[in-house]
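It is worth pausing here to work through a concrete case rather than discussing structure prediction in the abstract. The textbook approach is simple: state the sequence, then state the predicted structure, then interpret. We follow exactly that order.
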Amino acid sequence: MKKSICFVLLAGIVSMTSAQTMLSLDSCRALALKNNKELRIAQEKIKAAHYERKAALTNYLPDFTATGTYMRNQREISLLSNEQKTGLSNIGTALQPQFQAAMQQIAAANPDLGQLLAPLAALDIASPLNTMGTSLTNAFRTDTRNMYAGAVTLTQPIYMGGKIRAYHKITNYAEDLSKTQHETNVQEVILSTDEAYWQVISLVHKKRLAESFLELVRKLDNDVEKMIKEGVATKADGLSVKVKVNEAEMTLTKVNDGLSLSKMVLCQLCGIDLSTPIQLIDEELENLPMPYTNVGKYMETAYENRPEIRSLELAADIYKQKVNIVRAEYLPSVALLGNYIVSNPSVLNGFEKKFKGMWNMGVMVSIPIFHWGEGSYKVKAAKASARAARLQLDEVKEKIELQVNQSSFKVNEAAKKLSMAEKNLEKANENLRYANLGFREGVIPTSNVLEAQTAWLSAQSERIDAQIDVRLTDVYLKKSLGILK
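Step two, the predicted structure:
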């Protein structure tokens, strides 16, 4: 047994040195899984879901954001009005007459003191005060025509109503869902490959059968021609045989065309060039090996292994978490905030043309108060979608149970048909042997021989179909149980 398995595996390896490419069922499956575009797409979806899950995990961590801005203003911001600027710049000129008048009043009231203050009366205070006022006016300039600002912000979610946790669970489920969908695609590819493989095997055997039948009726045609020349058969017998020869040739042509197309389909599934000549190992087997599937309790196996059930369970879990996300939109949220803000001009020490900054920290709380029942309606809608997903899961389980029972019934039916086909073939072989013997002895007419040959052809064809049907029904059963790998 081990030697035969090793032989099949070695023979299934693609041999480019031979005229034909030798393939086994396992090698066809491997090539199909390797080259199938849908499986590649599914693998990329798995990667995308994986990175989505990692991205969702970062929502638990603090978020740092840096922003910067530059603004060019047409005019600068002024803290003083134009009248105040003019008054400060000319404050000395305005006070000079008042100062001199005050000196004169003091001198008039106190002549002795007036003599002492006489030098002060001639003192020029306008220029120093004007200069001081101008300096003060310039000190109040903001110079905000060119403004620069920047900030680094830290945001740490504390409580978001369960939204972050629910989203993280959804991405976990989504990653698992993409994996189960990939597994579903794998089983579909294997199923398509097996169907194409056994279709080729069936047509190869039917081609040999058609060639054998053609050889058989041609031999009968030669015999009848000789009998017509000897006068022991009629031309009607010869024409009947020739009609069967033509039918056999037409059947062989159809089988050859169908075989060529079936091999192209198999090559396409395996990712091989359609013009590549291929040969399957099972072509040489006269009796195809019958499968044996022992799965115990069918429904328990199906519920454990069917990727469709797992996909719908994950979809139901996703909808359940979507309810939490919708509900979280209408719950209080709390976040810790921190900033470091820098600007130029800086206002921390007057208006300075320097970059200076400060940090601040705080807590932000958002509490939805009233939205006319919008939150309640959305939560109810999300719950309805979750119930629909759960009902869909129950419906699919019922359909899978029906599919498993049908597949199991067809396996048993195919086995019975094969047993009956083998018995019919034994009878057809015996009938053909007696017909040929009687024809040579001259006791059986040509029409009976043609009937026996036709019955033999039908029995052989039914036996081939029954063998292929046994193989395919086993594949369908494994597919319905989710164990086709």
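Step three, interpretation. The CA atoms of residues 62 and 156 lie 4 Å apart. The beta strands are 21-23, 63-72, 146-159, 278-280, 333-344, 356-366.
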